[in-house]
Amino acid sequence: MALKVERYEGFDADLFHEYEIYKDMTGCPGISKVYWYTIEGPFNVMVIDRHEVSLDELVRGAPIDIQTVVSFADQMVSSNLKIHGDIDRLL
């Protein structure tokens, strides 16, 4: 698990919006599961699953093979379908 913290900046805090997006995308391939969000003193706090390797760590290593690129593309398409499906349902 990972703990993500930001200084509380009022209602429009970025971390709260990120938390809402993670909740909406629960079940999408490659999206971390979010467990908890709260305000503690001057901080916003969120607890999410941590992936073994971040995308940043992956691309800084050896060149990415075509199978990995296709896997990323598949996950991005699935995520976009989830986002747009939810938006269509809400409209």
Q: State the fourth-level CATH superfamily.
A: Phosphorylase Kinase, domain 1
Rg, Cα atoms, Å: 16 Å
How many domains? The number is 1
- As an assembly, this protein is single chain
Q: Look at the structure and give the mean pLDDT.
A: 80
- Estimate the helix proportion, in percent: 40-55%
Sheet with the most strands: spatial strand order: 1-3-2
Main sheet attributes: strand count, strand direction, barrel closure: 3 strands, antiparallel
Report the CATH architecture. Answer: 2-Layer Sandwich
Q: Report the CATH topology name.
A: Phosphorylase Kinase, domain 1
Q: What is the H-and-E element order? A: EHEEHH
Low-confidence stretches: none
Structural class: alpha+beta
> Rough shape?
globular
Question: What would CATH call the class?
Answer: Alpha Beta
How many strand elements? 3
Distance between the termini: 34 Å
